[in-house]
Design a protein that fits this description.
By secondary structure, this protein is an alpha/beta fold. The chain has a single domain, classed as TIM Barrel. About 45% of the residues lie in helices and about 15% in strands. Helix 5 crosses helix 7. It binds 2-phosphoglycolic acid (PGA). The site of 2-phosphoglycolic acid has 13 residues, from strand 8.
């Protein structure tokens, strides 16, 4: 059985003060709620404060990005060792906003994912097609290319330490979520790809999150799908009530 995982990607929102307030509210709402892995992904500046605020709770910490080197002359970058130092256990790699606005390629995603694993951070590797690609019927081809790029030269052992997030670009921040059927189709394809390139056992254990306009009112039906194991939540993770409702809604009977 794969344990559901709900991750809140705060993007470039929340000062330290706002971040610690949000955590305070979430801790109250989600105290003793252990059926779901809960991860918060604040901006770098709030990481250590959030780490301190979640110390006595069931909430875990992650970052939104990392550099692929452990240290060096890379002005303005953050090393994976520094993320560990702040208490991070997870890190997002290859979010579509990084690919679109900061030119991250599959090759960069591959290097960052490897480095994250090397230092003991669990990567949440994001993939997903644009609207243009979906309309041209290229979705599975794009997903396959992103998977082969991200996991080039990976061993079965390495793959066991990762989480994949399927985030159709057209559904991010648009209020237009993929239907459960559309998401399930791609999740199943991803699991199949992992099974044929690594092993059936690894594929069965791999957690695949859906991301793109996840809200309290659509989490349940998404989670009912066989291959949807959780969600990467953007906008709705910035509010105590909506994020905690999503976490609670993640426990759903599979179809
Ligand atoms: P959204 O963002 O929930 O605001 O659509 C999801 C994401 O970018 O991870």
């Amino acid at each position: 059985m794969r344990k559901p995982l709900i991750a809140g990607n705060w993007k470039m929102y929340k000062t330290i003060n706002e971040a610690t307030k949000l955590v305070g509210g979430l801790k109250k709402e989600l105290v003793d709620f252990n059926g779901v892995d809960i991860i918060l992904l604040p901006a770098f500046t709030a990481l250590y404060y959030v780490f301190q605020a979640i110390a006595d709770s069931n909430i875990q910490l992650g970052a939104q990005n990392l550099h692929w080197e452990k240290e060096g002359a890379f002005t303005g970058e953050i090393s994976p060792i520094m993320l560990k130092d702040c208490g991070c256990e997870y890190v997002i790699v290859g979010h579509s906003e990084r690919r679109k606005y900061f030119g991250e390629t599959d090759e960069v995603v591959n290097k960052k994912t490897k480095t994250a694993l090397n230092v003991g951070l669990m990567p949440i590797v994001c993939i997903g097609e644009t609207l243009e690609e979906r309309e041209a019927d290229k979705t599975m081809g794009v997903i396959e290319a992103q998977l082969s790029g991200a996991f080039k030269d990976f061993t079965a052992d390495e793959i066991q330490g990762i989480v994949v997030a399927y985030e159709p670009v057209w559904a991010i921040g648009t209020g237009k979520n993929a239907t459960p059927d559309q998401a399930q189709e791609v999740h199943k394809f991803i699991r199949g790809w992992i099974s044929s390139h690594f092993s059936g056992e690894i594929a069965q254990e791999l957690r695949i999150l859906y991301g793109g306009s996840v809200k309290p009112n659509n989490i349940k039906e998404l989670m009912q799908e066989q291959d949807i194991d959780g969600a990467l939540v953007g906008g709705a993770s910035l509010d105590v009530l909506s994020f905690s409702q999503i976490v609670k809604g993640a426990i759903a009977e599979k179809k």
